[in-house]
Amino acid sequence: MRHRLHRAFLAGCLAATLVGCGHHHPARQGLPLDLEEMSLRANLRVLASDDSEGRKPGTPGGQKSVEFLTAQLRKFGLKPGNGDSYVQQVPLVEIRAAADPTLSIGGGRGALLPLRQGTDMVLWTPRTAPAAALAQSDLVFVGYGIVAREYHWDDYAGVDVHGKTVLVLLGDPAYGSRDPGVFKGLSLSAYGRWSYKIEEAERHGAAGVLLIHDPGTLGFGWNAVRNTWMGAHLELASTAGQPDLPAIEGWLTGGAGRALFSQAALDYGALVAAAARPGFKALSMGLKVSGEVHAEVRRFDSPNVIAVVPGAGHKHEYVLYCAHWDGLGRDPSGAILNGAVEDASGVAALLALAQSFAHMRPAPDRSIAFVAFTAGEPGLLGSRYYVENPVIALDQTAGAIDLDALRVGGRTRDVVILGAGNSELEEPVRASALLQGREVRPEPHPEQGLYYSSDDINFARHGVPALYVKAGIDDAARGPQYGLTQWDEYMAQRYRQAGDKYSEDWNVAGAVEDLVLFRQLGERLASTRRFPRWYPDSEFSANRSRAMGGD
């Protein structure tokens, strides 16, 4: 049970003082709201323009985006965040799969089942070799592919998958069973994300990993999968090319996944239901997998961009705002993926906040850091590299506030804390929202686990409380059903697709209101002397102690 009395006291203090318990300051002044909107739009025009070519790391468009960011931060008067430099170079490896990967499944009901790249599957290899192959690899269904001792769950118990290919469901068992008593109920846990599934299969020595696409738990459709994972695949140079990595990894459409069960004469529905219950045992499907991926390998550095507004008092303690500057570049047909909402809007907000804090008088007590990460799509590589090689000591980082995919459809009456229930950073969100006449409401799609697919998760895993706040769905003019429909339509039709373009017709009043809330959160965190704590029952609660040098 959380310390409810302590939380209530903390929330009351925050609401009363605006800056933290016992530390009242006069309101600081930043940019007027009309300039906030002008700044936001101006940044968006550049970052989401065709000239930026989708902001892919290692491309001219990506380099233009970095140059724009550093020029703006320098113009606003922010100090370089990495010594005398505005950048931290991240060593990356690009593994570009050729357009002709093959995958075929034999055995079972007879005829060889060939799968087509882009239509039935999207394959890549994490290996840094010209070719990687599977030859007659046994296919094993491992259910949700989870090993979670705290939940007494082990989908790999009693099975050896070395040299074999694993077939994996997305999400948590509770997603399949709809049982609120399993894992975190309908809220996705870290074990439900696609990246965890691959990492767990790698730890067990699998030669191949195939994920069955499910838009319900991912939140996006097959087009987004193709645009994200076909072609160039990025890895950190420190982890790429390890010889024990799987030869082939990839996605299957839901239809292709079900077809494998049919070929094996297995009941898909019954086995998926069994996988969602305790005691599930991995099953050899009696099928053989063969496939090959050819690839070209390129090594290069791509920068995280870092700038600081120095604090007036405790300048060696930091509040950190972050977003990822990169995008996907182009889709397989060559169309530019401008990524206007995801995440040019977040980077535009980062710049607007940097400009606002640079103009604030008096200056905040703690320093304010602004970090735009590279290679966030889709593996969060820039933020992962940063927390493993921190420019600002993690034990001096009071908290991180992530800016990702702002709402551009007008004001909302509500605010959503993604991954709620983790840290004291959430209390000032409620206080700030209240001052705006808004309220904090549960996230509309907890099964998608958006917190775990944002840069927050890398900070949280290294002990730094990280906050991901978004505008809610209760549209101030048209109500919650309209807002939910708009979000779902964006995810289905524009997310990671060519339709995610900036328009001068966008109503950014809600995004500007969110900027004010984000700024208030940073001011409060910069003005209190306490470091926010994890709630005792947070899955990250032990990490802060380790980051601060505790046991």
Notable features of this structure?
alpha/beta; 16 helices; 23% strand; globular; two-stranded antiparallel sheet; single chain; 551 residues; 19 strands; 17-stranded mixed beta sheet
Task: Give your account of this protein's structure.
- The structure is a single chain.
- The protein has 551 residues and is α/β, with parallel strands linked by helices.
- It contains 16 helices and 19 strands.
- The strands form 2 sheets. The protein has a 17-stranded mixed β-sheet that branches. It has a two-stranded antiparallel sheet with strand order 7-8.
- It is globular.
- The model is unreliable at 1-27 (pLDDT under 50).
Task: Give the topology, please.
Blueprint: H1 4-17, H2 33-47, H3 60-76, E1 79-80, E2 87-97, E3 102-107, E4 110-115, E5 121-124, E6 131-141, E7 147-148, E8 153-154, E9 165-169, H4 173-177, H5 194-203, E10 208-212, H6 215-218, H7 222-229, E11 232-236, E12 248-252, H8 254-263, H9 268-275, E13 283-309, E14 318-324, H10 340-359, E15 367-373, H11 381-388, E16 397-402, E17 414-418, H12 426-435, E18 439-441, H13 456-461, E19 466-471, H14 480-493, H15 509-527, H16 541-547
